[in-house]
């Protein structure tokens, strides 16, 4: 019979319990100690051993869970659970009084569906998620630039009016089955740095009207993924002017606007996601959203 270990504590606290609160049939309440004991039993641990180990390590489990809570909050996304006591009692975002109990904002009702959808998008389909994100940021000119020789950019969008007029977002979209490497981030960002010294940059300038700007522009480089970023990428981005947007972050912004059915309708309406510096995706998106 396998014996429980610290790896089990980490696997449960950093991954397993979060799958329980972000998915189908999320309970309003749960207990971390009870859930961890059940988790160990599914891995072959004897019931008595699992219960004793869970009781002994509940403080460590809660400490690790709170670390992940802090990660959600640092992203500006409401945490989906709240620890209510030292014995492992937890209320989730599905509890009708979650906001009152936790003092936190609550995730949008359709967040889980939208997040699962974003995570399942690969290659060109993920470009739609990024295009809608630019739309929700207020960009009124949005173009897909994902072609060979695109200088490390997949989409470009710009604010044409308002207080953010002249702010231009340049997006590199990466999808993966497991995770995106730090080397990929560095490689794509290097291409971006070289972009303004290439002829391709002139094409991009004309597409979004940068060449006619009378008050300058501000460039924001966004590195987006359908999955989450590992600590190495997060640390690298801190030392470079890079904005990271994970699938979790994109899903939160999208779910604030509409449910999955609405996004599916918008996806159908937009049609092909071919690279084009003449087809402004703001037009079809604004007709639906």
Q: Describe it for me?
A:
The chain is of the alpha/beta class. The chain has two domains: 6-107; 113-288, Trna Endonuclease, Chain: A, domain 1. Helix content is 50%, strand content 13%. The protein has helices spanning 6-21, 32-42, 47-56, 58-74, 98-102, 111-120, 124-137, 182-195, 199-208, 231-238, 247-257, 260-270, 282-288, and strands at residues 29-31, 81-83, 89-92, 141-144, 155-158, 167-174, 218-225, 242-245. Strands 4-5-6-7-8 form a five-stranded mixed β-sheet, with helices on both faces. A three-stranded antiparallel β-sheet has the order 1-3-2. Helix 1 packs across helix 4 and helix 2 runs antiparallel to helix 3. The longest helix has 17 residues, at 58-74. The model has no long low-confidence stretch (mean pLDDT 92).
Give the C-level CATH assignment of the largest domain. Answer: Alpha Beta
Helix content: 40-55%
In what range is the share of β-strand residues?
A: 5-15%
Gyration radius, in Å: 22 Å
Structural class: alpha/beta
Strand order of the largest sheet: 4-5-6-7-8
Write a concise synopsis of the structure shown.
The protein is of the alpha/beta class and 289 residues long. 50% of the residues lie in helices and 13% in strands. The protein has helices spanning 6-21, 32-42, 47-56, 58-74, 98-102, 111-120, 124-137, 182-195, 199-208, 231-238, 247-257, 260-270, 282-288; strands spanning 29-31, 81-83, 89-92, 141-144, 155-158, 167-174, 218-225, 242-245.
